[in-house]
Amino acid sequence: MSDGRSRAWILVLAALAFLADGVGTQAMGLALPALLASWHLPRAALAVPTALGLVGFAVGALAGGFAGDRFGVFRALLASLLLMGVSTAGCGLAHDVAQLGRWRLAAGVGLGASLPVAATVIADFSTERRRGLNLAIGLACLPLGGFVVGEAAAFILPAYGWRGLFFACGAVAAVLAVFAGFGGRVAHRLPYTTAPGAPVRQRGAFTLRLGVSARDTLGLWLAFFCTVLLYYSMFSWAPAALSARGLPVAAVSRAVSAFSIGGLVGGLVTGMLLQRFGSRACLALLGAGAMACGLVLPHVLPGSGAALTPLAITIALLGATVIGIQTLLYALCAEIYPVAHRAAGLGLAVGCGRVGAIASSYTGVIALDRGGLQGFCASLVLAALIALAAGVLVSRQIPARLGQASVG
User: Closest Cα to residue 214, out of 350, 363, 382, 345?
Assistant: First the structure.
């Protein structure tokens, strides 16, 4: 196999790891109604297992990043996918809430670890010119994985129940772990990057000295925190906010699904724009767009008998800008952290994002209780503003390459 084909195969493998992450992330939510009915439990009874999954994700992101730098990204990816697969399948063996919580915690660690490691694989084996776009394609597989498992669940749940869904989702990650093992063997004869003169990853000791300034690291952490908080606020609380304003359940579902569709497009477009205009200009555009969408959102609610289109377009644009910012931040981490500490840098940043996801459980409900839809949208605008300010203040940015060819 030629080096070019080997490199392409490795990039596809990393993108599929993102898809497995999307599958594992959605498994709990899809299984939840059937699980509650099977165990005759109120919804609140599964709050702890759900929260433990988020906690595990934050811990896994930190551990996975350091493990990738310490032991190699393919070993870390194999271990994270195995843990994700075994633990997700283990959820199907649970017989009470405590057992389910332990399995979800372990699955969260695997899910969290795989994200920064898969992103590092893409960054390490991409040319400098194509790195942003390749990361955007990989990240696009996250919502794609959610879509795939959503479609599959429509067939699995009626036939095999919630246990069968967990087994199937776990099997996806386990199969991909086998491919990660083969990918590691192929990668041994390839350089980590095609950029001329780039250093090879070192298997050094654990360290927080990641080769960039404290300003850049703290800026990235804060930007990740606010962006992921905004993302989870939309999925967790936007349906409640819109329903409280009288929208039917079906209309709410269609409107919120527009966020994912917009995000899929926005992430890919951001990857292409990064190649030409650089990160600072793209971040300014995306941040301003997210704030504008948050300000407009309360004013596009359809009245009685009115079309849902303006609301769906606004939410789709919000999804495009938010996922665009997230894609940009991944590319920025891959750009500024040296190869020897790239996985740890990404892991720490992704971990801060997971803390933002946990915080959204509280910020969203506080904003809704105190200000209704207007207050909720104001919280989205504030999160976008802080993410924009934090990201723009990072001193090392992806440069604009307006004068270069579009192929890399």
Answer: 345
Q: Is the dihedral of CA 316, 317, 323, 324 positive or negative?
A: positive
Please report, as a single letter, which amino acid is at residue 42. P
Whether 407 and 240 have beta carbons less than 8 Å apart is answered as: no
Going by C-beta distance under 8 Å and a sequence separation of 6 or more, which residues neighbour residue 207? Answer: 341, 344
Q: From the DSSP assignment, how many helices (H) and strands (E) are in the chain? A: 9, 0
| AA letter at 55 | V
Distance between CA atoms of residues 171 and 148, nearest Å: 14
Q: How far is CA 197 from CA 48, 73, 210, in A?
A: 49, 20, 19
158 Cβ partners below 8 Å, 6+ apart? none
- 57: number of Cβ within 10 Å: 29
**Lookup result for tokens 């004013």:** 299
Whose structure tokens read 């990738």? 68
pLDDT digits (tens, 9 = 90+) for 227-266: 999 988 887 788 778 878 887 767 777 777 788 888 889 9
Collect all residues with Cβ–Cβ distance below 8 Å to 27 and sequence separation of at least 6.
88, 91, 149, 165, 166, 169
Render pLDDT for 65-90 as a digit per residue (tens, 0 to 9): 888 888 888 889 889 999 999 999 99
Q: What pTM, to 2 d.p., does this model score?
A: 0.81
Identify whether the C-beta of residue 127 lies closer than 8 Å to the C-beta of residue 11. no
Q: How far apart are CA 215 and CA 206, in angstroms?
A: 21
Give the separation between CA 64 and CA 346, rounded to whole angstroms: 9
User: What is the chain's percent helix, strand, coil content, to nearest 5?
Assistant: 80, 0, 20
Domains of the chain from N-terminus onward: 3-187 (1.20.1250.20), 214-392 (1.20.1250.20)
Is 91 in contact with 166 (CB distance < 8 Å)? Answer: yes
In this structure, the number of other CB atoms found within 10 A of the CB of residue 206 comes to: 9
Cβ neighbour number for residue 8 with a 10 Å cutoff: 13
Judge whether 244 and 373 are in contact, CB under 8 Å.
yes
At 15, is the pLDDT very low, low, confident or very high (cuts 50, 70, 90)?
confident
* CA pair distance 389, 154, nearest whole angstrom: 42
